[in-house]
Design brief:
alpha/beta, 31% helix, D-Amino Acid Oxidase, Chain A, domain 2, FAD binding, nucleotide-binding, five-stranded parallel sheet, Flavin-dependent monooxygenase, globular, FAD/NAD(P)-binding domain, 375 residues
Length: 375
């Protein structure tokens, strides 16, 4: 006999878990706050790692579908100085182990792999409470409730499920990014398109950085990193897109115009994304009937690992539940025994934030290795 599983959150991790459970005949429902799959944009490109995300998709039986989403050439990496000088330029020769896909498209193949009705939309969790005996009650924003014997918090940074297990809350990392898009870039923004190249581009200075990707349909997606306290950003009027773009661009005075065009030439309103993280090595004592995965369990500063780790969490938890039919506590114990050290290792891995905002704090090779996995 198996216990029905209730997942809060239909992100990549929660959906990977749902798919693996479905393949193993374990009843599961996913409750998602968004009203529909198309309620909001799902973010930009993801590089799917050969040691985490790809095995997770294989466990979900979706390798072929994933391969159909891969954007050729996008594993190219370029590092520029702030004056536009190319410091490093690595082409995509097809041998890299981190193919790039659009996050929204990846989420859609996971959704399409689940039976109709598995995901319940417009179900925003407002609170949870323990009932004893490993059972928990979830209260939703519309006032409805459910009781479940196995609850999984896959509900991200501000998880409603996490307080059942841990008092930890995300803390501001001291850095935020401002996100912009430039559409039809080779025609409308040729200088910026040439600077970014065919894949990813990064340019760094103390306290300031620009990262950009060439996405599907020649869209440039840029992230402008600024190491400033939250009240600094409070003084920027993001309700006035032109004024906000001008204020952010001022922080990159003296940078090459093909780089600052990623701010001043944006075809979308700039969006502020403050960066938060849970304490490195976050863990909890085993509590019957509940666990966490993805950002709910191990929210990290951006280092290229988060989405891949969430999918691997989902696949590993699904596999553990399948391997312990009728004994969910044994499954959760086994899952968390692997989760905690894996999360702690991920917190030490590369990525721009692992090297700080000073380009002299890591070599160009280190920066490229963080994005490509090449050591």
């Amino acid at each position: 006999m198996t216990t029905d599983v209730t997942i809060i959150g239909a992100g990549l991790g929660g959906l990977t878990l749902a798919r693996v459970l479905h393949l193993n005949g374990i009843p599961v429902t996913v409750h998602e706050a968004e009203p529909s799959p198309a309620a909001r944009a799902q973010g930009g490109m993801l590089d799917i790692h050969e040691d985490t995300g790809q095995p997770a998709l294989a466990a979900a039986g979706l390798t072929e579908e994933f391969r159909g989403l891969v954007l050729a050439g996008r594993q190219a990496v370029r590092v520029l100085d702030t004056d536009g000088t190319v410091l490093f330029d690595k082409a995509d020769d097809g041998t890299g182990g981190r193919p790039e896909v659009q996050r929204g498209e990846l989420r859609q193949i996971l959704l399409d792999s689940l039976p109709a009705g598995t995901v319940r939309w417009g179900r925003k969790a407002a609170g949870v409470r323990a009932l004893g005996g490993g059972r928990h009650e979830v209260t939703f924003a519309d006032g409805s409730t459910l009781v479940t014997g196995l609850l999984v918090g896959a509900d991200g940074a501000w998880s409603r499920v996490r307080p059942l297990l841990s008092d930890a809350t995300p803390e501001y990392t001291g850095k935020s990014v401002v996100e912009t898009y430039l559409f039809d870039a080779p025609v409308r923004h040729p200088a910026a398109a040439a600077a970014v190249g065919g894949g990813s581009m990064m340019a760094l200075a103390p306290g300031r950085e620009i990262f950009a990707h060439r996405e599907r349909d020649d869209t440039l997606h840029a992230y402008l990193g600024l190491a400033e306290p939250l009240d600094w950003f409070d003084a920027v009027d993001f309700t006035d897109p032109a004024a906000a773009a001008a204020r952010i661009a001022k922080e990159f005075d003296g940078w090459a115009p093909q780089l600052t065009e990623l701010i001043t030439g944006a075809d979308s309103a700039p969006v502020l994304r403050p960066l938060y993280a849970l304490p490195a090595g976050h863990r909890w004592e085993r509590v019957p009937g509940v666990t966490l995965l993805g950002d709910a369990a191990h929210l990290l500063p951006p280092n290229g690992e988060g989405a891949n780790l969430a999918m691997l969490d989902g696949a590993e938890l699904g596999g553990a539940l399948a391997a312990h039919p009728g004994d969910p506590e044994a499954a959760l114990t086994a899952y968390e025994a692997a989760l905690f050290p894996r999360s702690a290792r991920a917190a030490t891995l590369g990525g721009p934030d692992a090297h700080g905002t000073d380009p002299d704090s890591g070599t160009i090779h280190d920066l490229v290795a963080a994005f490509t996995g090449d050591e």
